[in-house]
Amino acid sequence: MIMRYSNLHTHSIFSDGVGTLRDNVEAALARNMVSLGFSDHSFTACDTSYCMKLEDYADYCREAEALKEEYRDRIPLYIGIECDYFSDIDKSMFDYTIASVHYIIRDGVCYPIDHSPRQQEECIRDAFGGNVLDMARCYFDMITEHALKLRPTFIGHFDVINKFSLMPEDSDAFRDISLASMREIVKACPYFELNTGGIARGWRKNPYPNDYLLEYLRDNGGEVLINGDTHKPENMTFYFDESVELLRRLGFDHVSMLGKDGFYKVNI
Description:
Number of helices: 8
Helix content: 25-40%
Mean pLDDT: 97
CATH architecture: Alpha-Beta Barrel
Order of helices and strands: EHEHEEEEHHEHEHHEHEE
Structural class: alpha/beta
Strand content: 15-25%
Oligomer: single chain
CATH superfamily: Metal-dependent hydrolases
Radius of gyration: 18 Å
């Protein structure tokens, strides 16, 4: 069966992507996609290097709305935002929201956790005295709190803290910490993305979340949607076919896609 895909996690030059919103639409059309969502990074005062400016929100929504109208007979488009833990947004401005955590702030110092290995190592060393499990607890506590407060449409790159392979992913203690977080979140937001962005950037060989977390979702009412965390239009469906095969191997029989009336299931 040939799958037609959607991608609700994309970035443009409004934040840290390299293409325009239109470039992303054209890339989606070239791949015969079912739908596309825009989701540039929300403003974070602690680090403005990669996110939208507050004053750009209106232009972002205005341009996205114009594209929705222009392409309405060719592909459904949705206006979303990737909302960081340290952001405040008006959810009514957007068709959907993604809850993500990109920073830990300790003693007034902002530590990016998924920008580079060096910065994550500094966070482990300086903010947590070298205790990697303490950092993991902090991260997963934050994504849990964020999800319960924001009530997002779905959860973004749930275990992105694993990006640079500095976490003890195979340890029982780490697994317990991450599963405890997912257990709380899924009660309020059952939708989690399978995110291929770490693979596209050459950091990972497998998507987020890890297999054992996907298995938990499978068995406990969670739903999975495949997203690219796409920063380059040419990567619009990068590793999507392989992600479907992974989900099939883990016992999934469907994925979720967003439509005008909410999420719907697509058999795989």
